Amino acid sequence: MNTAFSRAVLASEWTKIRTMRSTTWTLALTFVLSAGLGTLVALSLRANIDRAVNFDPAFAGLYSLTLGQLGLVVFGVLLVGSEYSSGTIRTSLAAVPRRGVFFSGKVLAGALVALVVAAATVIVTFVVAQTALGPYRTTMGADGIPARLGGACVYLTLICVFSMGVATMLRSSAVSLGILLPLLFLGSQGLGNVPALKSVLQYLPDQAGLVLMHLTGPQDDPRFGHGYGPWGALMILLAWTAASLLGGYLTLCRRDA
C-alpha cells in the first residue's frame, strides 16, 4: 500500500511537470544556452588558437554550462514556487497529507527530469563544441574527459535539487530567483576569484561545480585554484543540497500552506 501510494505521488508530480508551460521553456533554455554558447566559445578559441595559453579543448564544451545551469535553477524554483503562487499547494497537501511523502515525490520527480536534461545537455554541448573546434578538438573518451562530463551532469542535477529546497524554504519563486540567479551568475563569472572574497566564496555550490568540471586552476594556484579537489567539491555540493532539502522539509512541516 505504501509503495503504491508513493508511486501515485510520483506519478502526480510527473503530471504536474508535464502540464507546466514554463517547464518546456526553462529546460529548453538550459539546452539552447549551453550548446549555443559552447559553440561560440569554441569558434572563438579556434580563431585565436595561436594566442591561446594553456589551451583546453574541453573548456568550450563545459564553460557554457555555468550559464546554462540557470535554466535548471529556474525549473527547480518554479516546480515548487508555482504551487505556492497559484495556491494549488493546499490541494496537493490535502491529497497527500503526509508532507514528507509529498516533498520526497516532488524532489525525486524534479531530480529525475533534471538528470535526463543535464545528461543530454552536457553530451550535446560537448559534441557541438568539439565539432566547432575542428582539428583542435578532443573526444569523449580522452583522458580525464569522462570524469569531467560526469561531474557536469552531477553538478547540474544537484544545483536543480538545491534550488528546489531553497524555493520550499522561501515559498516564493520571485524571492528564490532573486537570490539564486545573481549568486550563481556573479560567483561563476569572477567574484569567486577575487582574493578578498575567495576564502569564503570558494565553498559556495557554483564554485564547487567549477572544481568538479575542472574549470579552475590547480589546488596550489593562489589565484584560480581552490583549496579542495573534485571529491571535496562533490562533498560540498552534497552538503549544500542536503541542507537545502532539510530546510525545505522542516519549513513545509512547520508552516501552513
TrEMBL record:
Keywords: Membrane, Transmembrane, Transmembrane helix. The keyword Transmembrane helix applies. The chain crosses the membrane at residues 25-45, 57-80, 107-129, 149-167, 174-192, 231-252. It comes from the Bacteria. This is ABC transporter permease subunit. It comes from Streptomyces bugieae.
